[in-house]
Protein: RNA helicase
Amino acid sequence: MADQAAQAPADTGAEANGAAAASNLQENSYDVEVQLSDLQKDEAHPLGSATTFQELGLPNEVLEGLNALKFLKPSKVQEKALPLMLADPPRNMIAQSQSGTGKTAAFVTTVLSRVDFSQPTKPQALLLAPSRELARQIQGVVATIGQFIPNLGVAAAIPGAIPRGGSVDKAIVVGTPGTVMDLIRRHQFDVSGLRLLVIDEADNMLEQGGLGDQCSRVKGLVFETLHTRLHRALTCFASLLPPTIQILLFSATFPEKVLKYATTFAPSANIIKLKVQELTVKGISQMYMDCPGEADKYEILCKLYGLMNIGSSIIFVKTRESASRIQQSMVRDGHKVSVLHGAYEGSERDALLDEFRTGKSKVLITTNVLARGIDVSTVSMVINYDIPMKGMGDAMHDTETYLHRIGRTGRFGRVGVSITFISDKKSFNALQAIAGDLQIDLVALSPDDWDETEKQVQRVIKSSRAQANFVPSAVGGGQ
Structure:
């Protein structure tokens, strides 16, 4: 039973590796806006910021874990969020900050500080993620930061991890909504002692597909009796929350309508967020390739293959079918490329991602299943083979998914390149709209001058610091 992380993944997911240079993080230069809840405002003390982990009153074992990872001081989002999340009585939190700035470590530190490990078999914290890959990664971060805690146990509530006859018997549970719902319904998961509910990639979890409904149902199952009819509307759950339960919602993006929804899901929450123009990662040079037509994208992708192998690269496509088709074609043409998407069984997905983390595979084609949260320190390039769209018939550009995709590179002060393919008026207009939303300019690459294209990309990947905008271009929102 995969209910405990014996060893963290190679990159300890999000914020463990790469945080060694925490005191030099460029992300500390921007401002984090804090909106205190009315309840917090009534307190005599807003706690403000913490410039060292020692100021937070963390358990010694948690401080040891942070020190072992060379977290020298809190990142900007951590120094604002942690004092509020650790305050007593516990307050709900909605936190939005760009990818790679320490969100996972922030909520994991809070969880490890709140849980009573003298009761190691009683579930006390539930952490939800939209994919098994992200859930496993968070599980690894918990195990790594909590490595000095006696009786630390982390249960993985993901498909195939807990058999029907088993039970969830760890203090911390990390899982996906569907599996958690099944475990609760089958009386394998006793939620009566939960102190914290954490939702990572919360905008995705509360809005898209069936995940929002599943999260609401999980919340209902946690705070209602199992025999009560499940409410589908989020507002029906607000009155069911005991005051002792703390809800933490984290994401790199929170569209306004989802943020409004989130404030009902996590009532009276403190909110921290960035301004829109500060959402893009400064370490990523964002480029686009104007392909003559849809049929030319594959040939141009193959020409980029040599640049993809300078570090490692992720290629995002629209569908599982196109991911598999492109991977098969590239392998047939002599390129070493792997593919990962939701059609693969859980164990296959785990193995494929582990191969990519360890460098056995350096180029990975995937769908949006890996767009959020996944951290591999060597990723130097992200290619949007298909521009992210949303709505019926891909009616509208998807700025949030674009941000999450490119956030797979340029993490924690590292350099990175993102290249988005456009091939017709629709994709051009979509990328132009994304650039306008983010108030950025993108660097144009020409398929007709390959020497110059290679020079521009290599200059970034081999530099010590990428530039988000080095030249003005035809596609952009300006500053």
About this structure: The domain at 19-275 is CATH 3.40.50.300 (Rossmann fold). The chain has two domains: 19-275, 280-461. Residues 164 and 188 are 8 Å apart (CA to CA). The chain has 17 helices and 17 strands.
